[in-house]
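Notes on consecutive records. When two proteins share a document, each keeps its own sequence and its own token line. Never mix them. Below: protein one.
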Amino acid sequence: MTRILGIDPGSRYTGYGVIDTEHGRSRLVTCGRIVAGTGAMPDRLVTIDRELAGIVRDYVPEETAFEEVFVDRNVRSALVLGQARGVALCVAARIGLPIAEYAPAQVKMALTGSGRADKEQVQHMVKLLLKLQGRLVADAADALAVALTHAQVRGMRQRTGLALTGSWKKSG
């Protein structure tokens, strides 16, 4: 069994989702979101760091998965998001957790079969794959989606004998 922490970083809300995966099946351990608020950016980054470190300490994941930053037109938003993402990456790197990164289209493709799926379709598949009822907070659903994508990629690599080290996106 492998425990994976999926992280959907944001400067106000950072989603997280922890799953256990084994033999192609995944089970929810916990999920939620860290509320960093709207205060000064340094204070928000400290909150993200402290809360994520606590989640890592409490749930002891073996691997982490992040969605790559999608930059549209708002460069300022991308820079702010990059700061929150950098803090989250540091939490994982500080304790030596392997880090996998996936493009948004990869996550959508892995879960729905379409790289152009909308958020509702992805959320529906997260709930279906993890056998969840009720409403999922969007940030937590996004974090679980990237964790499930990583579980799928790592499972395929194991079945095909591809290396599980280095960049997860390269074939070997």
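Protein two starts on the next line and is unrelated to protein one.
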Amino acid sequence: MQKDANLSIANPHPKDADVWQKLGLAIAGVGLLVLFLSWGNVPIPAAMGLTIALVGIIGGTTLYAYRLYMRQPAGIKNNGVWFKSLINRGALGWIAGIILTGFYVLLYWYPEYIGYKPNGANEGFVALFDPLSQFFKGKPASQWFLYGTLYTVSILALGIKFLFKYRYNSYQLKRTVSVIIAQLFLAYLVPEILAGLNYNDVSTAQGEYLGYYDTDIKNVWPLDYDFFYEYHLDAMQQEAYQPVGVLYLIIGIAMFLLVTPILTYYVGKRWYCSWVCGCGGLAETAGDPFRHLSSKKLSAWKLERWLIHGVMVFVFVMTAATVYGYFWNTGEVFGLNIYNTFQKPYGFLIGATFSGVIGVGFYPMLGNRVWCRFGCPMAGYMGIIQRFKSRFRITTNGGQCISCGNCSTYCEQGIDVRAYAQKGQNIVRASCVGCGICSAVCPRGVLKLENGPEEKRHDLPPIIIGNKSVELQD
């Protein structure tokens, strides 16, 4: 008999990493090491170094995840999540948070410290990505090209890890493949190829810059808050970019006026937040280990409603002022400078600080959906539709609920799912992104994501069992 044998469901003596897992970690570690060495200006051949870094990170992560999850029995394993320093706000978690936050600060406001030189040859970290940028569009990389590449690699590598972990749940497999494809093609390859074909971000032979517009077709206003900025509208109408520029203008307007409300009515905001959005894609893949850190407190819910709707009002007012200034050819509205009063504060406070620095940098402290839950105006816009005019809901079979709390623990939006399940009440919340993890981790099949008739989706069950009483509904 084994000396460590026990009857515990969650084995307190888990198996050590096998040789293949260690090899995978070593390969991924080499890839990360190349990135850090390049940041320190170690003379590494850029093409070779970038290849080693990207292939190492993707390949090593895939090998490690395959061996980690494929040798486990069926079922989603979250054993020990509250005992790991990295994902339980321990020392490693705080170190990771500080590193991520510091990287975003440098990326947004001090790109010269990662090697970006707009008036000369790039150095260090950014220079490592020059060969790939030259391949796509024939010019050196910027800090945003570096960021876009790393962002895509993170979703791809950790998305594969997610697929192994949730391999027995078809809904998780489908939506994860969807966000990987959306990021890889719609957000990364298509925009870079269009730039390479001179349909965007082009300077003429005479040195005239023709302008830039966002060619990530799924980046929809109000999330894409600068869609109506003067430079953006002018670039989409630039003659050299036609017919692509006007096509993006038409699609961009149609997306928030027609596509978003229609799809949200039929399937809820999950079509965007959990299936195509880049922010949601990173949260669901790289942020998956941190989902249990979202606060379930009532005070957090109150703060959430004030913040997300406050940001939404802010972007609406800012956009109204911007459109007014564009069509009336003025830089002021009601005596207020449009750029200094509306655009600049929004860009700094929301576009950079909230969505980037806090939204990703605080994963290890506040969970993986900080931005989506508290600040994203797109989520707020769709949330209102989902709450009051949608067919989507999560149904509950209260009679089967054993109050284990898995659903609430792993809800990245901080919804107390168990409270609804115990009462057998439909979950119709503006903040729900329809990730389906609550349903996936439920051991009794209590929860189900459904699209059904609007009628009665808000109705309470005939019998409500509360903390102090049992109430019969009329």
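For the record: The chain has a mean pLDDT of 92.
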